[in-house]
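re: the backbone from monday

yeah here it is again, tokenized this time
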């Protein structure tokens, strides 16, 4: 009983951190200096790719990934920038998914048993079987923030294997466009 209360509290704190960081980013995004981040990463020399992937992984747990994808294009070019952002985005999504699954899945399933939430529960049950296509579509379309989707999938019944495949295939299109945009900036300026 005590573990469940601690687990519930940790999940709520996790949700509040992610959601509040998204709001904070919206408010302070003008102060987000891409050139300063680019210069900082460039100082790491041959270690810059590893530092970038780690920085990307941790940072995108709390703030949107789009600026980092553009930085990857600027710093590493299209091919390597794409590889590094897919790796970082995938690791970030797995972390958020795993935390949400561990801390919130049982609680959400008990909430969905409510008679007023039957339709959500039916969709949740449907995710248990072949949700890869649904996840790819949700990843490609800008319907909701990246980590909100990671949290929702973490508390859903989606199989971990389906989540991994859907995430990998769903990340690639947006990463291609944004990293390419970052690469174009280097050619224009």
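seq for it, each position gets an aa:
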């Amino acid at each position: 009983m005590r573990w469940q209360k601690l687990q519930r509290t940790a999940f709520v704190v996790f949700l509040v951190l992610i959601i509040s960081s998204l709001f904070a980013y919206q408010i302070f995004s003008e102060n987000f200096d891409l050139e300063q981040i680019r210069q900082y990463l460039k100082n790491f020399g041959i270690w810059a790719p590893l530092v970038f992937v780690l920085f990307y992984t941790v940072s995108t747990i709390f703030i949107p990934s789009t600026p980092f994808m553009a930085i990857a294009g600027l710093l590493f070019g299209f091919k390597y920038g794409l590889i590094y952002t897919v790796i970082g985005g995938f690791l970030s999504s797995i972390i958020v998914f795993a935390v949400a699954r561990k801390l919130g899945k049982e609680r959400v399933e008990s909430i969905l048993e409510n008679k007023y939430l039957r339709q959500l529960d039916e969709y949740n049950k449907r995710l248990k079987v072949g949700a890869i296509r649904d996840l790819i579509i949700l990843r490609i379309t800008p319907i909701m923030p990246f980590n909100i989707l990671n949290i929702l999938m973490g508390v859903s019944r989606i199989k971990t294997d389906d989540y991994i495949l859907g995430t990998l295939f769903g990340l690639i299109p947006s990463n291609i466009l944004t990293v390419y945009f970052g690469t174009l900036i280097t050619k224009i300026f």
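The chain has a mean pLDDT of 82. The first helix runs from residue 2 to 28.
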